[in-house]
Amino acid sequence: MAVMAKRKEAATVKRAGVDPYVASLLEKITVGKQELRFRKGQKIFSQGDSADSVYFIQTGRVKISVVSASGKEAVLAMPGPHDFFGEGSLVNQSLRISTAETLEASTVFRIEKRAMIRSLHEQSELSEKFMALLLTRNIDLEEDLCDQLFNHSEKRLARVLLKLARLRKHDVALDANVPVLSHETLAEMVGTTRSRITHFMNKFRTMGLIEYNGELTIRTELLTDLVLHG
Question: Across all residues in the chain, what is the average pLDDT?
Fold first, then answer.
């Protein structure tokens, strides 16, 4: 039974995209790295702050958002455990163009720009992993752009929920539990109004695609079918 439990846990970690190896590579950075702990709802950095470091999430989840001059907010990404963010500081981005805020209690590493650049030069394995994460982030942004241009808000919401479950259409589809997000936050991610999100979430719940029980349970197989064939 213990062996089966360990295999199940390992499979869950693999599906979630968690890569403990990246964290082990960061252990080699002994200068210019700081471990920080944040409560839910705390800002790690704000739009307009000096961009002088990269962050790595050990535990928790972070919302990356931007606010327009008129005050409209849009969510760009929601990185989770073993994801990097704030990487714009490595390419002459002197000021932060987004805000990073914790969605749950989180532990992150703050790595100074100079220390990160030096480590990327010295550790080829870290450089490869970091590049792979950036390419994945770029693909996600391209998919989000296409989603905004070609899909209606109901389908965009379904894709957002699947992303929160950290699943893609080629993964094994299982139910996934994620922290409950406000409809306002989901609206910022989807690019629609909160009332529309409330309408679609109620519809998804009636259809059995999601379920509330302290956390949000996402029926990923059914939602994937909606995204691909709905």
Answer: 85
The pLDDT tens digits for 184-193 are: 989 988 989 9
Q: In the predicted model, what is the mean pLDDT of residues 48-52? A: 96
> Would the pTM count as exceeding 0.85?
no
* Amino acid, res. 61: R
Cα angle: 223, vertex 154, 208; to 5 degrees? 40
Beta bridge partners of 175: none
What is the layout of strands, in order, in the sheet containing 210-213? 176-178, 215-218, 210-213
Question: How many Å apart are CA 127 and CA 198, to the nearest integer?
Answer: 42
How many angstroms separate the Cα of 131 from the Cα of each of 75, 124, 203, 230?
A: 23, 10, 39, 34
How many structural domains compose the chain?
2
Domain limits for position 30: 2-148
Residues 133, 159, single domain; the answer is no
- Residue 116's nearest CA partner among 49, 45, 38, 28 is 28
For the residues of 93-118, what is the DSSP string, one character each? --B-SSEEEESS-EEEEEEEHHHHHH
Domain boundary (101, 129, 148) is at 148
Task: Render pLDDT for 67-100 as a digit per residue (tens, 0 to 9).
Answer: 988 888 888 888 888 899 999 999 988 999 999 9
- R_g over Cα of the chain: 18
Burial of 85 (0-12, 13-18, 19+ CB in 10 A): buried
End-to-end CA separation in angstroms for the chain: 40
Residue 52 and residue 93 in one domain: yes
